[in-house]
Design goal:
It is a single chain. The protein contains 27 helices and 26 strands. The chain is an alpha/beta fold. It has 6 domains: 103 residues, MutS, DNA mismatch repair protein, domain I (3-Layer(aba) Sandwich); 144 residues, MutS, connector domain (Nucleotidyltransferase, domain 5); 186 residues, MutS, DNA mismatch repair protein, Chain A, domain 3 (Orthogonal Bundle), CATH 1.10.1420.10; 101 residues, Orthogonal Bundle (MutS, DNA mismatch repair protein, Chain A, domain 3), CATH 1.10.1420; 202 residues, Rossmann fold; 59 residues, no CATH class. The strands form 5 sheets. It has a 7-stranded mixed beta sheet, with helices on both faces. Strand 25 and strand 26 form a beta hairpin. The longest helix is centred in the middle third of the chain and has 33 residues. The protein is elongated, with a radius of gyration of 38 Å.
Length: 882
């Protein structure tokens, strides 16, 4: 992340006040952050920080000394409403240092002491207003040892305490993980060179000193201290030096920005990629799982069509499972059982959904409490959520069927009854947002606070009660109560009854017709009233800190129950979506076959509606591990390809799938290369992107992978593209006995390959011609497409009729030219190794005989597919020549 502010070059002859000297001293310690400097009820910014903040936040830029010759730029925001301004700055990639007053201004001798209490960065925020509820907010650290060709990536969601990482032998794989995780902030050692191809990530990078942040020894010490373990072996880190460095950098950065120990980080477990279906960033993007190809969220994405979770925790767990589906059949089936439980019992699912609606984000609330960044409303929300736990447990226990995962969940269930009871007794249902506003605690929670509340809220009633007591006990019905700034509260009595003045009355002032008195009880009550307000605020603050520390002790237990609720929400959400959209439970198989009956694309169906969507059957077997799919643009080839991959992903999440029935042979990786666009920012053309992604697929695909390829080779010339597509088909069908592949293409010449490749089958998207127009039937059928329908598609797309008609004329002319062109045979060896006669025109009646003769002497064993294709084209042209 680039610095957001530079060291100041102060104008000449500027006179600095002690306050500005203090500001600049603190600013010098935080040169790369915008300094929010607390002054009374505002956070102020000065000099270049003020200019930056005013521009980014669209607030007024003023001057600290408007009448001076050299002005000091200044802007500010109210401290009680700063969250929204901070959110905007963080979204734009800025770091913000919060500088608070660390002593009471009323007790300060001279300048109030100030210090930076925390540093906010895009990857370390915990405030609800700066976070997306159902998305993780990752801080990552990248370490690469060029000499050892080993690196590591660690990522942490500071708002929840979740963190993990892994070591990798390939820097390209690290970049793939970074794009997949989409972190808000990336730590890297100073000196690390950011390749130009990844320049789009530059704003997220924060380069920190390697010796202090990525040191292996200090990193190990930080990890042991944070995790409270004595050995790295407990964390499976003893043989992962690069990962130790990356983890240490994350912890060091979090401690530096938080300005203190953490205490809320979850137990560290290294990522084990072998447990999960590998979905790289390219496939996630091409399948539009989280964002459409245009970069938009919402309709058109898989998560939008799938997400029926209610809680933020459930939404984040769904995000994690979409990124990392399982690949082990046991855990997939266990999750299928839970999804099935909630799908088959509408009452159970409905009851659970009603309870989940009353729960808040336990993970992030607990983090804010532990880090002392909570508000009274956080405690109230925590109490409301904990109150629901026994009700949810009761609903689950009454279920007639309890799969293994549910039994395990109930065995570890924790109602947190003692914490819930304390919070409910302490906090009102709707407490104020700030601890300075009063009214944080319920009456009856603390006797001392109750007394102070009584004084501040009912002080005048207490004075009136004391007056009535003195009147009754001393028979002084005309005794009055008064107040002035000199004596404070006093009793006033007419001179006519001076003989009745009680002994405990102390004379303070004599007037013409009356005397004024005070009593010990009156002065005590007055003193209590004067100091009650401050004492009440102080007592509420102390109680709030005590409650924070008390609740922080439950952090791990709260997080454990948050995990339980996230799982429950995940399962019921999958069931809710499956019920609403008539999805079916897929059968998992150990072989490599994939069979889908009446499969649909969930995102497209969600937009178009079920009635307008045409489902399709698809089957991959040993006899047909590659399906070569042809058909015109707009017919639906890409939809069939994508929906197959999506159905496999859903199946391996434990979800039901959008199909009448499905049998899925588990995948270890899914590669999806669908469509391409110029990536000018990375300096890559369409064809370069296409070939880079294809190269990765060819090198990394295994026997258990599923490959989705669409229009390979179209980014270059026709013959180059055809040759590459042909060779890629050969590679994929020959490797591991044939890798499961759906290959959509416009190269109709490839359809002849099914004659020589046993595991390749031709399919096409059916099209019907009707009165000069074409109708897309959206149906996948066996066999190759008979023509491309390019001009007809252009007409449907709205190309002007004159252009379409002219294109038809040109096409007819080109076809006639091709048919009239004589075939010249050169006197040189052909691609097939056949001798040719000298250049001559071949007579029509001799064509068939000559072709038959050539076929007899042809050496098929020495021919390549490309040579065969060239020969077929040549023969066809010769036969059709007039």
């Amino acid at each position: 992340m680039p610095p957001t502010a530079k060291p100041f070059s102060l104008p000449q002859n500027i006179k600095l006040t002690p306050m500005l000297e203090q500001y600049l001293r603190i600013k010098q310690e935080n040169p790369d952050a915008l300094l929010f400097f607390r002054m009374g009820d505002f956070y102020e910014l000065f000099f270049e920080d003020a200019e930056t903040a005013a521009r980014e936040l669209q607030i007024t830029l003023t001057s600290r000394n408007p009448n001076a010759q050299t002005r000091v730029p200044m802007c500010g925001v109210p401290h009680h409403a700063c969250d929204e301004y901070l959110r905007q700055l963080l979204e734009k990639g800025h770091k913000v240092a919060i500088c608070d007053q660390v002593e009471d201004p009323r007790q300060a001798k001279g300048l109030v002491k100030r210090a930076v209490t925390r540093i906010l960065t895009p990857g370390t925020v915990v405030e609800e207003s700066s976070l997306s509820a159902k998305e993780h907010n990752y801080l990552t650290s990248l370490y690469w040892d060029q000499d050892q060709s080993t690196g590591a990536l660690c990522w942490a969601d500071f708002s929840t305490g979740e963190w993990t990482g892994l070591e990798l032998k390939n820097l390209h794989d690290i970049w793939q993980w970074i794009y997949k995780l989409n972190p808000s902030e990336i730590l890297a050692p100073t000196g690390f060179t950011l390749p130009a191809v990844h320049a789009g990530l530059k704003k997220r990078f924060n380069f920190v000193p390697q010796n202090s942040y990525f040191d292996q020894r200090s990193g190990a010490e930080l990890i042991l201290r944070d995790q409270q373990v004595s050995s790295l072996e407990v964390l499976d880190l003893q043989d992962k030096p690069a990962l130790i460095r990356a983890c240490g950098a994350v912890l060091m950065y979090l401690i530096q920005t938080h300005k203190g120990d953490l205490g809320h980080m979850a137990p560290f477990r290294p990522m084990v990629p072998g447990r999960y279906l590998n979905l790289d960033e390219v496939s996630i993007r091409n399948l539009e799982i989280f964002r459409s190809l245009s970069g938009d969220k919402g309709p058109g994405t898989l998560v939008h069509a799938l997400d029926s979770t209610i809680t933020p925790m459930g939404g984040r767990y769904l995000e994690k499972r979409l990124q990392q589906p399982w690949k082990e059949s046991g855990i997939i089936r266990a999750n299928q059982e839970m999804t099935n439980l909630f799908l088959t019992s509408d009452s159970l699912r409905s009851s659970l959904r009603q309870k989940l609606k009353k729960t808040f984000d336990l993970e992030r609330i607990s983090t804010r409490i532990t880090l002392n960044r909570c508000t009274p409303k956080d405690f109230a929300a925590l109490g409301h959520s904990l109150k629901i736990l026994p009700e949810i447990r009761s609903i689950l226990e009454n279920s007639s069927h309890q799969p293994g995962l549910l039994e395990n969940l109930l065995a570890d269930w924790d109602d947190l009854e003692e914490l819930e009871t304390t919070l409910t007794r302490a906090f009102p249902d709707n407490p104020p947002h700030l601890i300075t506003e009063g009214g944080i605690f319920r009456q009856g929670f603390d006797p001392e606070l109750d007394e102070l509340i009584e004084l501040t809220d009912h002080g005048q009633a207490r004075l009136k009660q004391l007056l009535e007591t003195e009147q009754d006990q001393n028979s002084l019905p005309k005794l009055k109560l008064g107040f002035n700034r000199v004596f404070g509260y006093y009793f006033e009595l007419s001179r006519a009854v001076q003989d009745k003045v009680p002994d405990h009355f102390e004379r303070r002032q004599t007037l013409v017709s009356s005397e004024r008195y005070v009593t010990a009880r009156l002065k005590e009550l007055e003193n209590s009233l004067v100091t009650a307000s401050e004492k009440r605020k102080s007592r509420e603050y102390d109680l709030f800190m005590d409650m924070r520390q008390y609740a922080a002790g439950y952090n791990q237990r709260i997080k454990a129950m948050s995990t339980c609720l996230a799982r429950l929400d995940f399962w019921q959400g999958l069931a809710e979506t499956a019920r609403a959209n008539n999805w079916s439970r897929p059968e998992l198989s150990t072989d490599l076959g994939i069979s889908i009956k009446a499969g649909r694309h969930p995102s497209i169906e969600a937009i178009q509606g079920r009635s307008g969507y045409v489902p399709n059957d698809l089957e991959l077997t040993d006899e047909g591990r590659m399906l070569l799919i042809t058909g015109p643009n707009m017919a639906g080839k890409s939809t069939v390809l994508r929906q197959t991959a999506i159905i496999c992903i859903l199946a391996q999440m434990g979800s039901f799938v959008p199909a009448r029935e499905a049998r899925i042979g588990l995948c270890d990786r899914i590669f999806c290369r669908v469509g391409a666009s110029d990536n000018l920012a990375r300096g890559q053309s369409t064809f370069m992107v296409e070939m880079t992604e294809t190269a990765r697929i060819l090198r990394q695909a295994t026997k258990k992978s599923l490959i989705i390829l669409d229009e390979i080779g179209r980014g270059t010339s026709t013959f180059d593209g055809l040759a590459l597509a042909w060779a890629i088909v050969e590679e994929l069908t020959g490797k591991h006995g044939g890798i499961r592949t759906l290959f959509a293409t416009h190269y109709h010449e490839l359809t002849v390959l099914d004659q020589n490749i046993a595991c390749l089958k031709n399919f096409n998207i059916a099209v019907k011609e009707w009165k000069g127009d074409i109708v897309f039937l959206r149906r996948l059928v066996p066999g190759p497409a008979d023509k491309s329908y390019g001009i007809e598609v252009a007409r449907l797309a709205g190309v002007p009729n004159r252009v379409v008609q002219r294109a038809g004329e040109i096409l007819t002319h080109l076809e006639r030219q091709r048919d009239r062109k004589p075939v010249l045979v050169e006197n040189r060896p052909s691609l097939l190794g056949l001798s040719r006669t000298p250049k001559a025109r071949i007579e029509p009646e001799k064509k068939q005989d000559q072709l038959a003769q050539e076929l007899k002497i042809m050496n098929l064993d020495s021919m390549t597919p490309m040579q065969a294709l060239t020969t077929l084209h040549e023969w066809k042209s010769r036969l059709e020549q007039k």
